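Good morning,

Attaching, inline, the backbone tokens for the sequence recovery test we're adding to the shared suite. The designed sequence is right after.
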């Protein structure tokens, strides 16, 4: 199983640096010799405080906007939407870099030999080794969730020891630096006039030599062994900020370096060690540096798929742990004061894609930051629903931030005025229940799902015998009217109907499980029955809008009208074959016009083909992702870097091997010929179970099912079916199908 990213030179830029994280604290490590650089992040470093951005004129002009749309006056509707629906102010708060740690090593003179840096995914430790004048140097860095600090450890065989001067920096956007204790430096800043305060500290411990603070720097001289501990925080969590950050360092100082490392690895492996993928990769490829391996993508390099899959799981653990904030567009890692798209939570696909890996890859705990954030959005979403639309329930548009902002973001006609953000996010609540069967969780979160669905009972309009969202947009695409005029907004687009079909169904099922009977449940059922069904167009494709328009960008990166194929299960090969074939036509159309040109879009396509049980096409697109949309450090490239493609593609690899709905589990549904033999252990399926599989020459040879909850489902392999009923804790080995 390939688990090592490695290189023969320090990182030349951020896209070559390697990420570490404990969910809350993160760093990008460059691996320099004379100067080591860590660009650091903390998940709550967001500029500014909460705002009420709901446009006060929205409700007044909503009827006129709908009148324009119903009358086909799309440009007039969209012009009014920009004025009357946009947020005031138009933008939410941005996620920012925490800053930088610079470690200046003096006295390293002479030829550097045997240089190697790497990130071992199996234990989440970054290592740099090299020799100077024949003396070995070893540097290890990791972010530990067990002790909530970043740990840096440096050793040398040089009898003169090491001289090092660490410095904390923050792009000049800080308010104070200096000494906190005799062995500790700090830096602090205010994140805007109404924003949070931040503080970070670096503390040293040496074997041999000396450690003191001079000015704003730590000065270490003649040490054979150095351990540096770093922590940071903001007033988002800590009222007594400096004292709280210092306590993290004090607590960690109770342990030796060896103990800190052991505690870190033990904690990390409880998550990472749950799943193992073996595609019988040739070990010779593992001896090629990762950046060179990515330059020469070869079909027989199955270990690269193992590595990419494991990297996706590693990143999930590193940037989304219980009690932290959810992963942003860049996960936890952002080098900028104003990152791409503000480095926020974009909830019209990207945030959702970040969490596709959580349940099927046995990382349910890592899903919980998203659930916490949905609750954070709830009161704001109620205000947005009431003030903007005059509706009950709660709503969110296509972005949110640390404060759970739900008002419209930007002035962008093809994307900003989309009202499905909360609805899509709430389907994740149900997905978590399907995989865990945790009825206590469902009881806690059903009221949230219910409020997201309630909004649409009030918001939808009747048109041509159906209930339709209006205004409605298919993110972030544009159509061409028969007159030649371009438009993006309309009513009842396909994605809206598919999301609502899921949400209404999930609310109905949750009410049944929780024995809740009321009028709302009946209204959800009635509304579900009046949604526009997924339609097939004249070219055999899934229609994207409520009618067949010419597309302005037929190779568009968003494939929103295939939500029903993935992540939903409304379109399946064995359940809705006609729609599945139409989905295939849709994908072929997108790709023939240059689709998949962004990393996350290619990742979505991999999942789509996996759901169509087309392993060859899924693998073909996986190779395209490696070759065209993967940076030297294996981060996904939009461009620029976005982490959603890493998570989406890793989830897609799992979908190629095992798929599940509430009714059945399909084994090896999209196994490409290249993966003729292999095994996977620990993947999860709906119904509450783990599955281990082995296969040889393309044929399933073993399947073991371990029930985590009472399980009653069907296992399907090449059309053959086995019923499986197990009590929680039960294990069953499925014999030959």
């Amino acid at each position: 199983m390939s688990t090592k990213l490695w290189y023969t030179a320090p990182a030349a830029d951020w896209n070559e640096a390697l990420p570490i994280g404990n969910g809350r604290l993160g760093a990008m490590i460059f691996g320099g010799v004379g100067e080591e650089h860590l660009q650091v992040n903390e998940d709550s470093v967001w500029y500014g405080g909460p705002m009420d951005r709901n446009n006060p004129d929205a409700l007044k002009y909503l009827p006129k906007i709908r009148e324009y749309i119903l009358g086909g006056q799309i440009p007039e509707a969209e012009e009014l939407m920009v004025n009357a629906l946009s947020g005031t102010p138009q933008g939410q708060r941005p996620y920012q870099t925490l800053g930088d740690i610079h470690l200046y090593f003096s006295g390293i003179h002479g030829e550097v030999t045997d240089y190697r840096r790497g990130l071992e995914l199996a234990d989440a430790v970054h290592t740099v080794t090299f020799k100077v004048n024949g003396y070995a140097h070893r540097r290890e860095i990791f972010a530990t969730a067990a002790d909530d600090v970043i740990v840096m450890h440096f050793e040398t065989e040089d009898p003169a020891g090491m001289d090092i001067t660490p410095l904390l920096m923050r792009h000049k956007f800080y308010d104070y630096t200096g000494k906190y204790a005799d062995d500790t430096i700090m830096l602090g800043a205010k994140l805007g006039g109404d924003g949070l305060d931040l503080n970070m500290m670096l503390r040293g411990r040496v074997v041999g030599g000396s450690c003191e603070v001079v000015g704003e720097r730590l000065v270490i001289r003649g040490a054979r062994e150095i351990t540096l501990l770093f922590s940071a925080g903001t007033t988002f969590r800590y009222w007594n900020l400096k004292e709280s950050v210092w306590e993290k360092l004090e607590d960690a100082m109770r342990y030796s370096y060896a103990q800190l490392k052991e505690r870190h690895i033990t904690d990390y492996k409880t998550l990472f060690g749950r799943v193992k993928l073996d595609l019988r990769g040739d070990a010779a490829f593992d001896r090629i540096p990762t950046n060179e391996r990515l330059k020469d993508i070869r079909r027989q390099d199955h270990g690269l798929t193992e590595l990419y899959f494991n990297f996706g799981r590693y990143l999930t653990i590193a940037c989304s742990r219980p009690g932290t904030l959810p992963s942003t567009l860049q996960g936890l890692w952002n080098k900028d004061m104003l990152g791409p798209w503000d480095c926020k939570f974009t909830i019209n696909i990207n945030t959702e894609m970040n969490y596709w890996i959580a349940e099927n890859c046995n990382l349910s705990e890592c899903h919980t930051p998203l659930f916490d954030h949905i609750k954070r959005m709830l009161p704001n979403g109620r205000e947005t629903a009431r003030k903007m639309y005059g509706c009950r329930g709660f709503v969110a548009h296509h972005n949110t931030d640390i404060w759970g902002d739900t008002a419209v973001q930007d002035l962008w006609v093809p994307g900003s005025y989309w009202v499905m953000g909360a609805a899509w996010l709430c389907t994740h609540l149900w997905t978590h229940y399907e995989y865990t069967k945790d009825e206590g969780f469902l009881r806690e979160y059903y009221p949230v799902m219910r409020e997201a669905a309630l909004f649409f009972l009030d918001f939808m309009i009747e048109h041509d015998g159906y209930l339709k969202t209006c205004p409605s947009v298919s993110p972030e695409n544009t159509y061409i009217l028969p007159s030649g005029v371009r438009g993006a907004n309309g009513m009842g687009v396909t994605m809206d109907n598919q999301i609502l079909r899921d949400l209404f169904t999930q609310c109905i099922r949750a009410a049944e499980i929780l024995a809740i009977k009321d009028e709302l449940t009946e209204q959800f059922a009635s509304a579900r029955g009046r949604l526009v069904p997924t339609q097939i167009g004249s070219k055999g494709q899934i229609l994207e809008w409520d009618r067949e328009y010419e597309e302005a960008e037929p190779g568009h990166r968003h494939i929103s009208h295939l939500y029903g194929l993935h992540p939903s299960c409304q379109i399946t090969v064995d359940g809705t074959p006609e729609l599945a074939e139409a989905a295939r036509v849709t994908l072929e159309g997108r790709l023939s016009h240059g689709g998949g040109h962004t990393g996350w879009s290619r990742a979505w396509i991999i999942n789509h083909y996996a759901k169509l049980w087309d392993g060859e096409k899924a693998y073909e697109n996986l190779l395209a992702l490696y070759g065209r949309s993967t940076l030297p450090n294996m981060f996904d490239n939009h461009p620029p870097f976005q982490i959603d493609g890493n998570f989406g593609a890793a989830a897609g690899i799992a979908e190629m091997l095992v798929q599940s709905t509430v009714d059945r589990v399909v084994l090896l549904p999209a196994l490409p010929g290249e993966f003729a033999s292999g095994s996977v252990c620990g993947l999860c399926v709906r119904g509450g179970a783990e599955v281990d599989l082995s296969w040889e020459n393309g044929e399933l040879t073993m399947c073991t099912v371990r029930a985590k909850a009472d399980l009653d489902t069907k296992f399907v392999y090449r059309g053959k079916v086995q019923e499986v009923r197990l009590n929680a804790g039960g294990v069953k080995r499925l014999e030959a199908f």
